[in-house]
Amino acid sequence: MKYDFDTVQDRSHNYSAKYDERKMKFGTDKVIPLWIADMDFKTAQPVIDAMKARAKEGIWGYTSRPDSYFEAICSWQKRRKGWEIDRSLMSWSLGVVQTISAMVYLFTPENGSVLIQPPVYSEFYDMVEAWHRNVVENKMIERDGRWSIDWPDFEKKLEQVDLFLLCSPHNPLGIVWKPEDLKRMADLCIRHNVLLFSDEIHSDLIFHQKKHTPVAALSPEIASHVVTAISGTKTFNLAGLQASAVVFPNAHMKEVYDHYWACMDIRRNNAFSLTAMETAFNEGEEWLEQALTYISDNFDYIHDYCAKHIPKIKPNIPDATYLVWLDCRDLGLSNEELHDFMIRKAGLGLNDGCTYGRSLNGYMRLNAACPRSILKQAMHQLEAAVNSL
Ligand SMILES: Cc1ncc(COP(=O)(O)O)c(C=O)c1O
Hints:
alpha/beta; 7-stranded mixed beta sheet; 4-stranded antiparallel beta sheet; 41% helix
């Protein structure tokens, strides 16, 4: 079927955090919300149909997880990424952030240290600090708008840490890591005896003919050193349902992880996430392909618009994720001024770049997974605001 991504869905009455938390986040609800990472698109029709059928049942008691649930996830990974997952080493998790938190708590010592590559998803900082571990930064290097790893620094920092949190693909830079870069990072982690955790939540949102490589699929030796988080929540826009999966390198680590959650009796899918995820992985491909094309066209629109009308704003067009990293340094504003400018002058609710890299100045993150008309309005508002400076 042909999906419609142009129609604007009114999300302001459905408890969406993106819309209904605007006042709390930005101090006003008069902003176009292009922040938190979900899409303003309805999900795949088979998922909607399956959820309607589930809702009609009228009984949503404790939910057991059939084998077919993990089979759907494994078959998706194999089909789309060539990754053969050993199902006996898989666990369910509420969300990837919960898994990051558990990784830090369970697999680093008190006062331990964790390596991250800023600018990176802000929860990488927050979950490490939540457990009073030390954040060690291997800052990405920017040259002419291109970002790359500082390898000597990466290796040096590995000597100081217990765990490395890799964002693959990378949010907010949209980098699809090359296999050789992944191998180099993994080999160095092995050499320095640092556990590698790979957050692959964005690994289905890939553009420009790039290809995502699951780091654990590189070799059996690397697989024995890596914990991977995967999820359908970003892929199919189901974040409110809270269900993801983790793949462990060995039975012992899986047992430690499962025991931790069992202590809080957090181990079952809810009645709806079970249905949605299984259906999405089995029947959602057609929708995903069309969504990716639409989002890619949105990227082109942003790129062309900024180049033509707002040259002071330089968008980093991502190869993965639907998140565009905006270089606003030419506006000459401090982070605080930029924050206020986007809200009050441009009427946009974006994420501040400095939450992803705490020493950065002059960046914002824009979520481009919305109907084109909303994006057009946002770009017009941004242009007018920049011209008023
Ligand atoms: C890299 C990354 N990891 C994890 C998450 C959130 O995962 P979850 O909703 O499963 O906790 C996000 C959401 O934006 C993300 O960008």
